[in-house]
Amino acid sequence: MEDLIRAIPDFPLPGILFRDITPLLKDAQGFKAAIDLFVERFRGQEIGHVVGIEARGYMLGAPLAYGIGAGFIPVRKPGKLPYSKLSESYALEYGTNSLEIHADALGNGDRVVVIDDLLATGGTAAATRRLLERLGAKIEAFAFLIELDALKGRDALPGVEVVSFIRY
């Protein structure tokens, strides 16, 4: 599966080595293998919702939710959600942004797993965590296909389980 992840230097800015999962998504067997890793890891854990971080978290999160019989909740970039929402800002390794979630997406004690394709500095995941905590959700784990160890993204998520399958 790792051979289906393309490394693109200097994207989106000089000095960034982007890990592109689109070849993996294109490959039927590779995509299935990736989703199966997540499903096997979280099956039977009474997860009520999978929270996917825009946009690649949707590509992995929706099939995970289906595979474990959970609902799917999108966390979006600004201006994409039509209803009442909460917002959190965060820093990227190459800039800043913010995320939003519908104010009624989750309630107190809802058990969730948060999924994205890649854990780098942890800023996006930490902002998502803050959103979910404001809604009262219980985060069972953060799950990533790829983790960039040198950027220490786990440090931004203390006290919660972090699962990753491919580490660089």
Description:
- The chain is of the alpha/beta class.
- It has one domain (46-167): Rossmann fold (3-Layer(aba) Sandwich), CATH 3.40.50.
- 27% of the residues lie in helices and 35% in strands.
- The chain has four helices and nine strands; from the N terminus they run ββααβαββββαββ.
- It has helices at residues 22-26, 28-42, 56-68, 123-135; strands at residues 6-9, 17-20, 49-53, 71-75, 85-92, 95-102, 111-119, 138-147, 162-167.
- The strands form three sheets. The protein has a five-stranded parallel sheet, with helices on both faces. It has a two-stranded antiparallel ribbon with strand order 1-2.
- Strand 3 (49-53), helix 3 (56-68) and strand 4 form a beta-alpha-beta unit.
Q: Which characteristics define this entry?
A:
single chain; 168 residues; Rossmann fold; 5-stranded parallel β-sheet; two-stranded antiparallel sheet; 9 strands; globular
Assigned CATH architecture? 3-Layer(aba) Sandwich
CATH uppermost class: Alpha Beta
Which runs of at least 5 residues are low in confidence (pLDDT < 50)? Answer: none
The largest pleated sheet is described as:
5 strands, parallel
Shape: globular
Strand order of the largest sheet: 4-3-7-8-9
Beta-strand percentage range: 35-45%
CATH topology: Rossmann fold
Q: List SSEs in N-to-C order.
A: EEHHEHEEEEHEE
Number of E-type strands: 9
What's the short story on this structure?
By secondary structure, this protein is of the alpha/beta class. Helix content is about 25%, strand content about 35%.
